[in-house]
Design a protein that fits this description.
Layout lengths: L1 H8 L16 E4 L2 E4 L5 H4 L24 H13 L1
Antiparallel strand pairs: 1-2
InterPro entries: PxxKW_fam
Pfam families: DUF6811
């Protein structure tokens, strides 16, 4: 366990930011919290949601598609003939 603490406190890993709170990948070493998957967590959150985050789910936009009923009936009738 001491070897892993030395890895995080060596300066290679940066402490997590407030957006990382609640993630399952956080490791605590010397009263600081570090991400065990990525060395610079603030860079992952710069463009949006961190792809390593286990506590945040991406929002998926589902738009309503309009279906032309005339074309739909022709497609259905065409597949029955074959």
């Amino acid at each position: 366990m001491a070897a892993s603490n030395e890895l995080y406190t060596s300066g290679f890993f940066n402490p997590v930011i407030d957006k990382c709170e609640g993630c399952e990948r956080i490791v605590e070493a010397d009263s600081n919290k570090y991400c065990k998957s990525y060395s610079s967590p603030e860079a992952k959150w710069r463009l949006g949601i961190c792809n390593f985050a286990t506590h945040v789910k991406p929002e998926i936009f589902v738009g309503k598609v309009r279906v032309n009923p005339i074309k739909a009936s022709k497609r259905a009738a065409g597949s029955k003939k074959k």
